[in-house]
Amino acid sequence: MSLMTDLEALEGLPIEELKGELYNLTLELEHEKLNTYVGEIHTIHASDGEIHFGYREGRTLTIDADTLYVDLPAIINLVGKEQKKMQQATLERIKSEINNL
Question: Which of 15, 21, 46, 91 is the most buried (most CB within 10 A)?
Fold first, then answer.
């Protein structure tokens, strides 16, 4: 849906409903500013003591290399645990499907 279509849908609404819509959009914007989900990293490169992760439509996450290095053991630990959970869940689904044959 385009912005123009969204605006056309708002025409004629009472001012209280418009205020409600504005409030909801403000909350969504604040949430977006506070949280970033990176589902897939497309590029990784380094320069000037920083690591740059390229993701979603030209966006970049930049982390200081020293900070990342210090946090790397914890990151590896967490990724390993989450990956193990995901593999176990996938294995359980595979077993279930085989049993259904």
Answer: 21
